[in-house]
């Protein structure tokens, strides 16, 4: 994805949809910062060129090779933060595994069959029970309102 020399002052909002990009060039743009989370979901990104004034997203530890020339910085080979020897600041809960979510970013995915907040719930959502209770409550309330309010209806 070549966005070089596009007069970008900030990261375009539509860039979030290009998570499948492997190569991204942002050089020759008057960018001042790369907001945190700008590359959330960019797990396939292997080469990123940014203006020399900017650091590589996630820092130099998130990339295997960071090189500089006279006007740009090239970040190559995105590292998997889950495989690093450095301990994570926020480790994943007991029933979850770490997965990369962009340069220097991680996400915790629940192991099967766990789900919910901090992967503490086991099994699946009880759809039949939930639907049955909701349906019974709706029918009961409808019948009650019909029975109590029909005397107020005007007959022609």
UniProtKB/TrEMBL annotation:
Signal peptide: none annotated. Gene3D superfamilies: Ribonuclease Inhibitor. The chain crosses the membrane at residues 125-146. Residues 78-120 form the EGF-like domain. Keywords: Disulfide bond, EGF-like domain, Membrane, Transmembrane, Transmembrane helix. GO terms for biological process: positive regulation of osteoblast differentiation. This is ARAID factor. It comes from Chaetops frenatus (Rufous rock-jumper). The gene is Atraid.
């Amino acid at each position: 994805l070549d966005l070089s020399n596009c007069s970008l002052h900030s990261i375009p909002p539509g860039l979030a949809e290009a998570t499948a990009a492997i190569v991204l060039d942002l050089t020759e743009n008057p960018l001042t910062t790369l907001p945190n989370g700008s590359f959330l979901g960019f797990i396939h990104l292997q080469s990123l060129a940014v203006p020399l004034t900017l650091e590589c997203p996630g820092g130099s530890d998130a990339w295997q090779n960071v090189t500089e020339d006279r006007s740009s910085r090239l970040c190559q080979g995105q590292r998997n933060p889950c495989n690093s020897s450095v301990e994570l600041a926020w480790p994943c809960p007991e029933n979850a595994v770490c997965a990369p979510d962009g340069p220097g970013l991680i996400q915790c995915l629940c192991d099967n069959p766990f789900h919910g907040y901090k992967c503490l719930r086991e099994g699946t959502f009880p759809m039949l029970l939930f639907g049955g209770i909701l349906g019974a409550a709706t029918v009961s309330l409808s019948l009650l309102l019909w029975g109590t309010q029909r005397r107020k209806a005007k007959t022609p």
